[in-house]
């Protein structure tokens, strides 16, 4: 087990160097961002210094990766973190984000087949949807409408809501969901010059 751990830790340096090069950052840039000295960063990347949690946490944050990605941990634990599809309520959810908290992104697929009766639900949060393929029937409060590919909607999830296929065919759509009510702010057109 010690040999496997040494191999995993030995691979961190090259991975850190590759991540920094991808970002086109210098050791000085990374030092300024993390508060870790240039010499320590250099020694980490070359393998002359063993990585510690105290060093890896700010580096993972600076590079925008998880600790698991940084140390190439095997895919274990909570499946939601590993982008595996989940089937819930007859819908297939494919997580598109790995960042815990904040706004979460999903691709949802409602398989074709018989249309089900609406059973509106409520919960805390705010949702933004964009239809990719198929026709989505949406029941939102007292409104009942069909969304087509290219259409988008946003709403407070405390409003009773339900989604289903409108015509028995499968539907694919993107969903951004903020559990604390964060709203997705989108601009339809650029500001005019001088505005």
UniProtKB/TrEMBL annotation:
<dbReference type="InterPro" id="IPR013096">
    <property type="entry name" value="Cupin_2"/>
</dbReference>
<dbReference type="GO" id="GO:0003700">
    <property type="term" value="F:DNA-binding transcription factor activity"/>
</dbReference>
<dbReference type="InterPro" id="IPR014710">
    <property type="entry name" value="RmlC-like_jellyroll"/>
</dbReference>
<keyword id="KW-0238">DNA-binding</keyword>
<feature type="domain" description="HTH cro/C1-type">
    <location>
        <begin position="16"/>
        <end position="70"/>
    </location>
</feature>
<dbReference type="Pfam" id="PF01381">
    <property type="entry name" value="HTH_3"/>
</dbReference>
<dbReference type="GO" id="GO:0005829">
    <property type="term" value="C:cytosol"/>
</dbReference>
<dbReference type="GO" id="GO:0003677">
    <property type="term" value="F:DNA binding"/>
</dbReference>
<dbReference type="Pfam" id="PF07883">
    <property type="entry name" value="Cupin_2"/>
</dbReference>
<dbReference type="InterPro" id="IPR001387">
    <property type="entry name" value="Cro/C1-type_HTH"/>
</dbReference>
<dbReference type="InterPro" id="IPR050807">
    <property type="entry name" value="TransReg_Diox_bact_type"/>
</dbReference>
<dbReference type="InterPro" id="IPR011051">
    <property type="entry name" value="RmlC_Cupin_sf"/>
</dbReference>
<protein>
    <submittedName>
        <fullName>Transcriptional regulator with XRE-family HTH domain</fullName>
    </submittedName>
</protein>
<dbReference type="InterPro" id="IPR010982">
    <property type="entry name" value="Lambda_DNA-bd_dom_sf"/>
</dbReference>
